[in-house]
Amino acid sequence: MENRVLSGMRPTGQLHLGHYHGVLKNWLVLQNEYDSYFFVADWHAFTTHYSDKIDLESNVTEMVVDWLAAGINPNTSTIFVQSKVPEHAELHLLLSMITPLPWLERVPSYKDQQEKLKTKDLGTYGFLGYPLLQSADILIYKAGLVPVGEDQVAHIELTREVARRFNYVYGREADFEEKAEIAITKMGKKQAKSYRTLRKAYQETGDDEALIRAQAMLKEQQNITLGDRERLLGYIEGVGRIILPEPESLLTKASKMPGLDGQKMSKSYGNTISLRDSADEIEVKIKRMPTDPARVKLTDAGDPEKCPVWQLHKVYSDEQTCDWVKDGCVHAKMGCIECKQPVIEGVQAELLPMQERIAKYQADPSYIKQIIHDGSQRARNVAKETMTEVREAMGIIY
Ligand code: TRP
Ligand code: SF4
């Protein structure tokens, strides 16, 4: 469905400002515009951390708490946990039957991660299948849009290829055209006519606008069955039934959130400020940040462009403060500790209200359990519907 967004995060550690600025703020915007599904990819955590003693229970709970504290709305978004919807595993298994091994071996993250994480055992079947499990996560909700970072785009591309192959293999019917033609008439005269016009426009001139309009029209149809809708979707493009629609990635701009050392903020660089760091921890971390090495003494002039603190000013300070920093740094009018103060206060002010909400949620574990339970139930209902169609298409109907 074009208006459904789905994204997930692996519960492998605490959320930090990089997640907030890079991912969560984006989700906050999306949840107001789309039917949004956000989930904790707990099974995915095992693909790289199967022998690590991570406390999944607290990681999963904390992740959901942090999402809520950041403003994800459980009433409008569906928040759930992957392992609570076991249908993901069933779809993953079935998709594995039609996925050529080289498609998985060719996914760039497969070799990259193996090179990068030499200390980890990434020679497992599960790790190779990581992107295919991700495909199942997406396809089981027929999500149209998947907000992801650059590193995940290849996984969405794989998902599209797998969906196409699934539809090709299992969406073909001997009497497809006949059934599609009958389905057209079921829509009523007026709708049938505009469907035919749009289909013709798409097939004869490749008019994408017509394709989108025809798809939108089918979504509105009340008087045709799901199977017929899939037929008519496929019939526009001249393929078989489209049981699993291809998703698109919604590329999240690379997070501008710099870490404490000026590199991108990331757990693996050890340069993070956690969403749960106390005011004191924030102060200590920022006070310890390296600055322009040219500023040894107060009287040494500096260059903000060579200083990671300046990167944080760009995120947290207004124009006036930024001017004050530039002037003070270049003309050696102030010390680095003084310069860091507005950043310390900016980060603290950003995190304080979030941390108050975190404390409130943590005081009420049964509420969080309920959110996870309800969201997972909602997700599972959708997943079950898709699996019924998938099983039928594959002939698993006994
Ligand atoms: N692989 C994603 C990551 O590491 C997490 C993820 C799992 C995901 N399944 C997904 C993201 C489905 C989007 C859609 O960030
Ligand atoms: Fe960095 Fe500010 Fe010190 Fe200049 S004055 S080096 S910008 S911390």
TrEMBL record:
It catalyses: tRNA(Trp) + L-tryptophan + ATP = L-tryptophyl-tRNA(Trp) + AMP + diphosphate + H(+). The keyword Protein biosynthesis applies. Its EC number is 6.1.1.2. L-tryptophan binds at residue 137. Pfam families: tRNA-synt_1b. A motif ('HIGH' region) lies at residues 11-19. The keyword Ligase applies. Keywords: Aminoacyl-tRNA synthetase, ATP-binding, Cytoplasm, Ligase, Nucleotide-binding, Protein biosynthesis. One of its GO terms (molecular function) is tryptophan-tRNA ligase activity. SUPFAM superfamilies: Nucleotidylyl transferase. ATP binds at residues 10-12, 18-19, 149-151, 264-268. Its main location: cytoplasm. It is found in: Cytoplasm. PROSITE patterns: AA_TRNA_LIGASE_I. A motif ('KMSKS' region) lies at residues 264-268. Catalyzes the attachment of tryptophan to tRNA(Trp). HAMAP family: Trp_tRNA_synth_B. Homodimer. Belongs to the class-I aminoacyl-tRNA synthetase family. This is Tryptophan--tRNA ligase.
